[in-house]
Amino acid sequence: MSTALIEARDVELAFGETPALRGASLSAGPGEVLAVMGPSGSGKSTLLHCLAGILVPDAGEVYFDGQRIDNLGEARRSALRRDRFGFVFQFGQLVPELTAEENVALPLLLNGVRRSAALAEARPWFARLGLDGLGGRRSGELSGGQAQRVALARGLVARPRVLFADEPTGALDSLTGEQVMELMVGAAREQGTTVVLVTHEPRVAAYADREAVVRDGKAKILSMGYAPGGAAERVAS
Ligand SMILES: Nc1ncnc2c1ncn2[C@@H]1O[C@H](COP(=O)(O)OP(=O)(O)O)[C@@H](O)[C@H]1O
Ligand SMILES: [Mg+2]
């Protein structure tokens, strides 16, 4: 019995001869902010991609909201990513041809929301994230911190159940990084979004309810500050 919203169980995945995950188990509860730490090359991104249905594990299982998702076909995993998950990556990955506002509206447009309605949803994020007046800019006209806040708004605008963030402050200076982190965790908590946050900065992990560490393709929960539903957490060896 588990109350996890998103969970990996004994996930294994190799890239050719390179074993990236070797029986990794990890879970996050509804509304929980989970920091995933660990050295470079330990398998953090691969684990995040497995949880998000981007990569399919060779062995093990992935569950979202009580349903197994790793065995779904690409079309259904893609729909899940579009409808239920949000993403923020290290380098914002904004679409350079679009304005900041259009970038934020993009997940809604992909979900079939009409353009005017999508832009109306996107706009309040600019004031909320300290980006007033920047909605018409393109990514080339934004600072790194501004672009990452736009990427954050894009990740949250469709009110995903889970936000996956892979080193979202990795390319920012520490002050800017902390501001982005505070905004991210604040906005996610406000709308009850679960956050799986990969980072190798301990300072960043301080914003999380719990920390896990990935080493040699295995994951381990370090702190137990938050126990969703009081359920015992799975801890991998
Ligand atoms: N697309 C890929 N092709 C081949 N090897 C990969 C690929 N992605 C990751 N790896 C390898 O898998 C291991 C884990 O990588 P990754 O999950 O990116 O680690 P982290 O995010 O912790 O730095 C590393 O040895 C890495 O070189
Ligand atoms: Mg990585």
Automatic annotation (TrEMBL):
<dbReference type="InterPro" id="IPR003593">
    <property type="entry name" value="AAA+_ATPase"/>
</dbReference>
<keyword id="KW-0067">ATP-binding</keyword>
<dbReference type="InterPro" id="IPR003439">
    <property type="entry name" value="ABC_transporter-like_ATP-bd"/>
</dbReference>
<dbReference type="InterPro" id="IPR017871">
    <property type="entry name" value="ABC_transporter-like_CS"/>
</dbReference>
<dbReference type="InterPro" id="IPR015854">
    <property type="entry name" value="ABC_transpr_LolD-like"/>
</dbReference>
<dbReference type="InterPro" id="IPR017911">
    <property type="entry name" value="MacB-like_ATP-bd"/>
</dbReference>
<dbReference type="Pfam" id="PF00005">
    <property type="entry name" value="ABC_tran"/>
</dbReference>
<dbReference type="GO" id="GO:0005524">
    <property type="term" value="F:ATP binding"/>
</dbReference>
<keyword id="KW-0547">Nucleotide-binding</keyword>
<keyword id="KW-0813">Transport</keyword>
<feature type="domain" description="ABC transporter">
    <location>
        <begin position="6"/>
        <end position="236"/>
    </location>
</feature>
<dbReference type="InterPro" id="IPR027417">
    <property type="entry name" value="P-loop_NTPase"/>
</dbReference>
<protein>
    <submittedName>
        <fullName>ABC transporter ATP-binding protein</fullName>
    </submittedName>
</protein>
